[in-house]
Amino acid sequence: MAFNGEPSKYYPSGQPEDIKYNFFLDLEHGYCETAGNRIHLYADSTRWIVVFEKSGYQNRGTSAEIELNYIGNCIDYPIDKYPERNYITNANNIILIDPTEFERIENKDGEEMETFELIGQNIKEIKIRDNIVQFDNNYQNYEKLGIDIRDYDNPKNLIGFGDFIRYLHETNPALISATEEEIRKHIPKDIPKLMTIDEFHFVSAYDKTNPPSRQETYQLIAKILTTKNVTNWKPTQKPNNSWKNWESGHL
């Protein structure tokens, strides 16, 4: 259901005028320059939950965030309540770097495009959540990690906002990953965690001819959830969920 954006049978019934969103892992989103992603599995004898985690830079939104998408039969769905209707979703977003911090670090010198989503060369530190992190402005260190620095309208090889989030994922992934407490915000506190999957074979969420039920990754996940046996995670397909394999944040 979530693969097609349709609310599952476990969603709150709500009222006819309510709006329900059901999101699925998407590593190709045009407005999110993807950095990291993981899958978390929880289950006991009657309950099961899959949590998709994705970090990245929300281009045009000037915010770095973690997005958590919840699929399962015991989720406390986030609800935004308004007088005319409620908005029910299976997603929760965690701010890593807010727009105010991006405004502070954005390059202030040069032509218009030289100041757009590029970090000033004199910036030394950047605030991520409540942490002050040293900023590496040497573009060569980014390129060594496979991060392509923007070449148009960027004569000083300044680091892009999305480049920085990907650099953190490659060098200090825990810094931009969800904590267990954050992941459990919308699920039962007592449901056992089975495992976290860091590497897996991903198929485009836009390929509707190949739904999760036909994919090895999700077949194995279903087997683990039903047996509670993590040794069933024995994929034969090569992991490809790295941001390097998917185009994102291009809009």
Keywords:
single chain; 251 residues; alpha+beta; 2 domains; five-stranded antiparallel beta sheet; three-stranded mixed beta sheet; 5 helices; 10 strands; globular
Strand order of the largest sheet: 7-4-3-2-10
User: What proportion strand?
Assistant: 15-25%
Structural class category:
alpha+beta
Q: Tell me the series of helices and strands, N- to C-terminal.
A: EEEEEEEHEEHHHEH
Number of DSSP strands?
10
Major sheet, described briefly?
5 strands, antiparallel
Distance between the termini: 26 Å
Overall pLDDT level = 95
Gyration radius, rounded: 19 Å
Shape: globular
Whole-number total of structural domains: 2
Helicity level: 10-25%
What does this structure look like?
The chain contains five helices and ten strands. By secondary structure, it is an alpha+beta fold. Strands 7-4-3-2-10 form a five-stranded antiparallel β-sheet. The chain has a three-stranded mixed β-sheet with strand order 1-6-5, with no helix packed on it. It has a two-stranded antiparallel ribbon with strand order 8-9. The protein starts with 18 loop residues before the first strand and ends in a 24-residue tail after the last helix. The protein has helices at 99-105, 139-143, 161-171, 180-183, 216-227; strands spanning 19-20, 33-43, 48-58, 63-72, 79-81, 86-88, 91-97, 125-128, 131-134, 193-197. The protein has two domains: 2-96 and 176-245, no CATH class; 99-174, no CATH class.
